[in-house]
From TrEMBL:
<dbReference type="InterPro" id="IPR000551">
    <property type="entry name" value="MerR-type_HTH_dom"/>
</dbReference>
<dbReference type="InterPro" id="IPR047057">
    <property type="entry name" value="MerR_fam"/>
</dbReference>
<feature type="domain" description="HTH merR-type">
    <location>
        <begin position="1"/>
        <end position="71"/>
    </location>
</feature>
<dbReference type="GO" id="GO:0003700">
    <property type="term" value="F:DNA-binding transcription factor activity"/>
</dbReference>
<keyword id="KW-0238">DNA-binding</keyword>
<dbReference type="InterPro" id="IPR009061">
    <property type="entry name" value="DNA-bd_dom_put_sf"/>
</dbReference>
<dbReference type="GO" id="GO:0003677">
    <property type="term" value="F:DNA binding"/>
</dbReference>
<feature type="coiled-coil region">
    <location>
        <begin position="86"/>
        <end position="113"/>
    </location>
</feature>
<protein>
    <submittedName>
        <fullName>MerR family transcriptional regulator</fullName>
    </submittedName>
</protein>
<dbReference type="Pfam" id="PF13411">
    <property type="entry name" value="MerR_1"/>
</dbReference>
<dbReference type="InterPro" id="IPR011256">
    <property type="entry name" value="Reg_factor_effector_dom_sf"/>
</dbReference>
<keyword id="KW-0175">Coiled coil</keyword>
Amino acid sequence: MLKIRDFARLAEVSMTTLRYYDEIGLLKPIQVDPETGYRFYSMDQLPSLHRILAFRELGLGLTQIVEILDDGMSPEAVHGMLWLRQAQLQQHIQAEQEQLVRIEARLRSLEQGTCLPAYEVVLKAVKPITGVSLHLTTTDVASQAHWIGAIESMLQRSGVKPIDHLLVLHAGREDEHTPGSVEIVAPVDARDATTLITQSEGRLTRCELPACPHMASTFHHGHPSLAPLAYHALGTWMENNAYTIVGSRRKLRLRRGENLDDALTEIQFPVEKLA
């Protein structure tokens, strides 16, 4: 038998970790001195500890590891748990990459000595829009770009020419616990809409956006990650002119090539005058 101090040194973990693993039933000592409370371990327990540490390095929680080591979980369930952890890491990496893109765009703007863009907000009427749409239960920018590209490819393959620019419709959240969602809308005529819905096997649905008599609009020329500047301009205009938002935000992709610094986006909010 080994004292907890010696076992901790051999396993390259702290005694605090071993005591905690004992408390939660993850790794019990083979013997505890009833008088002193000292814990003793066996080298036969080292493989079990290494297994625990390996699962911790994969990002699994201690409760999950307890379930795995207690043989209360099937291999399929372990596979599913690891698959979920993989998806969480991929999502985290993607979020970090998007943040890096925003930082790079801001650095380029500073290095080039670019002044903050001036936004002119106008109030205009918007006609009704008919077409097809794809509903996404995510506000992830990369996911939106992927599906916009997929819809544009489908339009080209089908020989369908949209009657206006593709737009992204952002639904407002009820509260912070409600997941965000967007709708990608391709304005097309009724006959083409039927064709596209059939070809998409129902993933695309028919869409009708009503006319809006008062739409606050501005253009953002530059990298999409700098669009919050446009929202600031819109918000300031609404505040100064006593308007309130009465519907979902719209983003029209007027120009989007490989050079995102040259992208052109129209941002719209349906509004009405405050009483």
